[in-house]
Specification:
Arc Repressor Mutant, subunit A, Rossmann fold, eight-stranded mixed sheet, two-stranded antiparallel sheet, S-adenosyl-L-methionine, methyltransferase, O-methyltransferase activity, SAM-dependent_MTases_sf, O-methyltransferase family 2
Length: 311
């Protein structure tokens, strides 16, 4: 329990609304007066003035002779991937979760997630920001996953559209096939460099996996989106797509090991039909039934990893 967590997140909501309405994007392109900004956004002048004044006081904007610009600190945080302060707009994923979370009372009664339109995929700035953040853990995680496998391993990275882990696998001599949603592949395909041994395939693992055999199937933050039925089917398909001595690696929060996993399960409750966080015992049972010999889970660079070798 921590009553300090009850504080209303005003700054976060103001900044999120500014991103959502295009305030930062407009001022990143050019300096504008509040009146010009309101006109450009087709927004209410009074509302724009009130919000930009708050952003000035918070340090996200600066003003000279009534002309607004993005502050240097905000520019580094939003638009400069080389900056140690860079976040891109990854936080907008959290901002978008507010509405479903406010529907939690209804979900508790109905058992159904918050109703929302089906999205085609996350925005590109979110994917790139997530990729940037993952760079801290990717080297150690990929090294752990590949331990004992052939140097020139063939890897299937399910949901690996952001490319971070795929590129780390490549640095270690592997070739990688990425299976991700069509919208994600369309966004990230242009980011592939000439000659990179990475193949990007559009698809849904619920409908099938690419032909193998693969030496490693990597599941990064995938399993919490689905329930037991889907995960069991995925593990069974993975076993068939792996080589005789292949391995599956699962990166996810393990329920029962920390408070964050329990809280994240609530996020899955309000956002998915049957997603959640699962205990190590559940993963072990599902993987064993699919034909894997499961090792005890490990924590590498802040990530929990479950691996199973095909029997």
């Amino acid at each position: 329990m921590n009553i300090n967590n009850f504080e209303f997140p005003r700054e976060f909501l103001i900044v999120g609304a500014a991103v959502k309405t295009g305030i930062f994007q407009a001022l990143h392109k050019e300096a504008l007066t509040p009146e010009q900004l309101a006109q450009k956004l087709k927004a209410d002048p009074r509302a724009v003035w009130v919000v930009t004044e708050s952003l000035l006081e918070l340090g996200y904007l600066k003003q000279t002779d009534n002309v607004l610009k993005i502050s240097n600190q905000a520019n580094s945080m939003f638009y400069n991937p080389e900056s140690p302060d860079y976040n891109g707009f990854a936080f907008m994923h959290t901002y978008d979760l507010f509405t479903p979370w406010l529907g939690l009372p209804d979900t508790i009664i109905s058992g159904k997630p918050y109703p929302k339109e089906k999205k085609q995929g996350p925005p590109k700035n979110f994917i790139r920001a997530m990729s940037h953040i993952a760079q801290k853990s990717a080297p150690n995680v990929t090294a752990y996953c590949l331990e004992g496998l052939p140097r020139k391993s063939k890897i299937l990275d399910i949901g690996g559209g952001p490319l971070t882990y795929a590129r780390e696998f490549v640095k270690r001599g592997a070739s990688v096939t990425i299976l991700d949603l069509p919208a994600v592949i369309d966004m990230m395909q242009p980011d592939l460099l000439p000659g990179e041994p990475i193949t990007m395939l559009k698809g849904d693992f619920n409908e099938g996996l690419p032909d193998g055999p693969f030496d490693l199937i990597y599941l990064g933050n995938v399993c919490h989106i689905y329930g037991e039925k889907e995960n069991r089917r995925l593990f069974q398909r993975s076993a068939k797509a792996l080589s005789a001595e292949g391995r599956i690696a699962i990166i996810d929060m393990i329920r029962g090991t920390n408070v964050h996993a329990a809280l994240f399960a609530v996020n899955m409750l309000v956002n998915t039909e049957n997603g959640g966080t699962w205990t190590f015992e559940q993963y072990k049972e599902w993987l064993t039934d699919a034909g894997f010999k499961v090792k005890p889970y490990s924590e590498i660079s802040g990530r929990q990893i479950i691996t199973g070798d095909k029997q």
